[in-house]
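pinning this so it doesn't scroll away 📌
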Amino acid sequence: MSLGKTACGLIVHETYNSHNDVPLFYVKEAIKLISNPESFVQIEVQFESDIGLALVTETEDSDTIVFARRPRTQGYSRFVKGKRCSLSRTVTITLEKVSLREAVLLSSWIGGSYPPEPWGRNKTLQSLSYWASHAFIWGQIQIIPGTETEKCPW
């Protein structure tokens, strides 16, 4: 499905593997603001008012942490139990340019940018340290039943 064009005319598509956790209106508006993306780009777009809940938060040693698989992912994600989401006016979009004229939406979410998870193919040097101190908020994101574990798989 086409989501629209970037400021430089690149057509952005959503695929089966895209992780879009943002209402399409905001994704389409954010895409319009992206200019001249590299082969892989992650960009934050600020809106004038709150648009939803950020699902990632900083964690502390005293928090209850679990790991579980999310649908359409290859590895285990870190979750924190007992914390609340915070309102955000930021959308983060990750695109991969697949040709001179097209890009694919890899993921989008409400809230600030963060590095890929430590098991991902686009992981960075910051991935492990970031995800060791941040987590998705338990109960807010679908998981694959039966995959929950307290042992860190990475």
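📌 and the second one:
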Amino acid sequence: MFNVLLVAEGPTDAGREIYNEKKGKKEQSDGPIQIFIRRIMDDCSFAFTVRRPVDVKNFPLLRKGKYISPEDPVNEKLPGMAGRLCCDHIAYHQDVDANEFEIVYAKVRAHFINAENEDIPCLAIIPKRMIESWLLADTSLFGVDFTLPKPPEELWGKEKAGGNHPKDIMGMALAGLHKSDITEAFAELAWEADISVLLKKCPISFYTFYCDLLLWAAR
């Protein structure tokens, strides 16, 4: 069993808490990140404890105003948080957005040093440009007439401006499928997507994630 501390940006990336009436408590649903990990490893022996980047001390302020300052005393370091939550592996998600993949990936990896010094394997999950880019890669999921104006990892532009922003294109794709619950739709797409297509269509970030995941899970 892998007990994973997963730090992810939001519910469309890592699921949300859903109240289980039979158990009388909230449970974390899987989002695309957990689903991709389960599918690639062909193994469901993963237990994920999900937290947000604002909970973690000493991570980079990659987008101005997005996260609490790394110096804020209410945050925690990754090793301490993992230990407190009884987690033996760490996975950290950060979208690239308009930044360079290599720069964001290197910054996140650099902040794994403390955890890896304590023998806690760490996985960087860095979609270029965002999780929507990965989910759009298998265009067969959206019908025979659906095409992308650019390769998934190159989609970008001003949001809600009728351009090539991944969120706008995903919105049109989901409208064609008559999907209104975005969080559920993203999870469904992650289960249905052809992993080999994602590796081909997202050769920078998804391929890196795939290779890093195999090494991470082997530790």
